[in-house]
Amino acid sequence: MLLNMDVDYPTQMPDLTQQADAMPTPGMKEQTLFFSNVRLDAARMEDCLQPVLAYRKRTGVPLYCSEFGAYDRASMPSRLRWYRDTIDLFARHHIGWSNWDYRGNFGIVDDEGNEQPFRKILFPW
């Protein structure tokens, strides 16, 4: 059974133990439990980033997020909130980034080439 649910951002996730137990692979189960009973918000993203920030502090290497984005099935208001929090996190921690794609499910423009509202969050100029 694959988990298929709408998730608004930010949100408090429900207990997903039952769904995790039905996952076909240990990796899918682990990934589902990672989101079980947690608050999905900027603070959670900050917490998840701590090992990476510690690695940079230890090694001095620059950080770059080569692919990220909010899937087009999420509501636009939710996507906008997520993009704002993500870009703020990258800026505060001096992390380079690139959006997943230019055109497509995570695109800065839609299939017709129309600019998505979050373009101004990514590129405010």
Explain briefly what this protein structure is.
The chain has 125 residues and is α+β, with helices and mostly antiparallel strands.
Q: How would you portray this structure in words?
A:
Helices cover 42% and strands 12% of the residues. With 125 residues, it is of the alpha+beta class. The protein folds into two domains: 12-61, no CATH class; 62-125, no CATH class. A two-stranded antiparallel ribbon has the order 1-2. Strand 3 (63-68), helix 4 (76-92) and strand 4 (95-99) form a beta-alpha-beta unit. The longest helix has 18 residues, at 42-59.
Mean pLDDT: 93
**What Rg, in angstroms, do the CA atoms define?**
16 Å
* H/I helix tally: 5
Strand order of the largest sheet: 1-2
| Largest beta-sheet details | 2 strands, antiparallel
State the share of residues found in helices, binned by percent.
Answer: 40-55%
Overall geometric form:
globular
Share of residues in strands: 5-15%
Number of strands: 4
Give the tally of structural domains. Answer: 2
Poorly predicted runs? none
The computed structural class is: alpha+beta
Query: How do the SSEs run, as a string of H and E?
Result: EHHEHEHEH
**Span of the ends, CA to CA:** 44 Å
